Amino acid sequence: MTEQSDNLMRGTAGSVGIVEAQRASFDEPLALSSGATLPAFELMYETYGRLNAAKSNAILVCHALNASHHVAGVYAGRPDSEGWWDNMIGPGKPVDTNRFFVVGVNNLGSCFGSTGPMSINPATGAPWGSDFPIVTVEDWVDAQARLADRLGIERFAAVMGGSLGGMQALAWATRYPPRIANALCIAAAPNLSAQNIAFNEVARAAILTDPDFHEGHFYAYGVKPVRGLRVARMIGHITYISDEQMGERFGRQLREGIKYSFNPEFEIESYLRYQAEKFSEYFDANTYLRITKALDYFDPARETGGDLAKALSPAKARFLVISFTTDWRFSPARAREIVKALVDNRRDVSYAEIVAPHGHDAFLLDTPQYHAVVRTYLSRIAT
Amino acid sequence: MTIAARADFSTIAGWVAPSARVLDLGCGDGSLLAYLRESRGVSGYGIEIDDAGVLASIGNGVNVLQSDLESGLAGFDDQSFDSVILSQTLQAMRHIEELVAEMLRVGREAIVSFPNFGHWSHRLQVLSGRMPVSKSLPYQWYNTPNVHLCTVADFDAFCETRAFHVLERVVLRDGERVGLLPNLLGSLAIYRFRKR
């Protein structure tokens, strides 16, 4: 059965349908920002649509904190396994797979199959755990470039991502200027504010002080620092939603009235605990530590004495920058810093500030203006 | 691409140097910038607050930055543009003095166009006791976005008191230049000026 007829039969027109993850192995050592070297590594990835003969229609999608290479479609036999950006990517969707060849990639240090703390360290035969090097956004981008080489993609029509994914798109533009025609930086910032770093530090402290963490080598003990991971997720989750949205959705609603206890009584408590519980089941604590560190370290202007315009001066791509009005994690003001730096460099850039009530999470939702902007922008991209 | 050229487009294009860097304030669907790009090879950005305008500008392949002009042009460095254009938007702005000062801060020259309230048909309607409605002012008093209408004579005085150097002034009626009695016979005024 072809994918298309499968789609028709399942009534999921607009979905890329059944997808399969692939694995690419790289034997050339990868020099990391920290000075460490990964002797070899693997990257999980998925692709949707067809690469054209000129190999000029590829779009790379970079993921944020807790996502993966599974960007769109579903896995066979698992109808609930929809990719994390399925509303954005598919036939006839804003990122139209009838026209573009879309690559989703799982970053180094992740827990979804690419080489990371849960992988076996060839030097010891045991999981890397805490010994897995700390990786940065730039390291991820370098690894992604290797995957592009492997797929024969010399130049991406676009690199796009939301949040931390938008930072990767930005890093692509400055690190590989000839290899990226367009950069879509959505709900992103040029670096983390002190407040952002503070939230990350609380999350890390929760994990690091969990007695089941065992200095990051908990795999050997058959335990997981789930309590720390849950608290980490809770604090993160709070920052992804606007006060307004949380108030509208939960308000001060109680589940069963005041009981004068420490059990979850308010709906918001119960929601946070449920989300945290779910998260701690599938996510790895060592990965969480590393990804928050990658966020904290990202700061292209560090090399240029804080001059973001100078830091972005190597970029040649055309940019689309998008922010959301109620995003207080990466606010519109932060996105405008990126825009200003690009304008100072006389780069082509468009900026849309989307009115959306959801907060940072809006980049994963389908506010009509947001999707229309992405769709319209991409429709004009030459392939 | 079909771009509906407004009456002031060709005049503005004539005042913008080839390959100039321009900023178009209140760029709407980006058609002026697209017109200038095609006719003069200019580059630059449009600023628009309206969602539909931003979307249309992106569709026209124009660099558009979604922002409120009333909050100034803080994202732009001093003298970073050859021309800053305000095409048929002046009359709808609240803080005109501040905005014009910002235009001359970020640009070497300002180009401003606006409907001439001094046109005889407007004067007649006011004399007859009604707020004017015309081709250039197509709104009723209760639904007009225009809050700062002015005449050619008013804008001349505005430039005069601020010691702006008016480099060129063209007044049009139905797309044709009006030579005689422009404040009485013209419906659209276009100015190019800079700081003295």
Q: What is the gist of this entry?
A:
The complex is a heterodimer of chains A (383) and B (196). Chain A is an alpha/beta fold. Chain A has helices spanning 3-10, 137-151, 164-175, 194-208, 226-240, 243-249, 267-282, 285-297, 308-311, 332-344, 368-379, and strands at 22-26, 30-31, 37-38, 41-48, 58-62, 89-90, 95-96, 101-105, 158-162, 182-186, 318-324, 349-354.
Walkthrough of the structure:
The complex is a heterodimer of chains A (383) and B (196). With 383 residues, chain A is an alpha/beta fold. Chain A is built from eleven helices and twelve strands. The longest helix of chain A is centred in the last third of the chain and has 16 residues. In chain A, 49% of the residues are buried. The N terminus of chain A is likely disordered. Chain B has 196 residues and is of the alpha/beta class. Chain B has an eight-stranded mixed beta sheet, with helices on both faces. In chain B, β6 and β7 form a beta hairpin. The N and C termini of chain B lie far apart (40 Å). The model of chain B has no long low-confidence stretch (mean pLDDT 95). The chains are: A alpha/beta (383), B alpha/beta (196). Chains A and B meet through α10, β12 and α11 of A and α3 and β3 of B.
Most extensive contact: A-B, 21 and 20 residues
Q: What string gives the helices and strands of chain B in order?
A: HEHEHEEHEHHEEHE
Give the strand line-up of the largest sheet of chain B: 3-2-1-4-5-8-6-7
The portion of residues assigned to helices of chain B is 25-40%
Low-pLDDT runs of 5+ residues of chain A are: 1-13
Oligomer: heterodimer
Largest sheet of chain A: 8 strands, mixed
Strand content of chain B: 25-35%
Overall radius of gyration of chain A? 21 Å
Count, helices of chain B: 7
Series of secondary-structure elements of chain A, N-terminal to C-terminal: HEEEEEEEEHEHEHHHHHHEHEH
Radius of gyration of chain B: 16 Å
